Amino acid sequence: NIWKKxxxxxxxxxxxxxxxxxxxxxxxxxxxxxxxxxxxxTNNK
Length: 45
What we know:
Layout (H helix, E strand, L loop, with lengths): L1 H25 L3 H15 L1
Helix pairs in contact: 1-2
């Protein structure tokens, strides 16, 4: 169950990363980056 959750999170993470990347190319979006970093820290704990 935990492994499934981790895989899901990694998929969502990469998806949101690609999304924010296409966003940053046209708009300024410093918030999503910080939010992603915070989420990663929580996952590492």
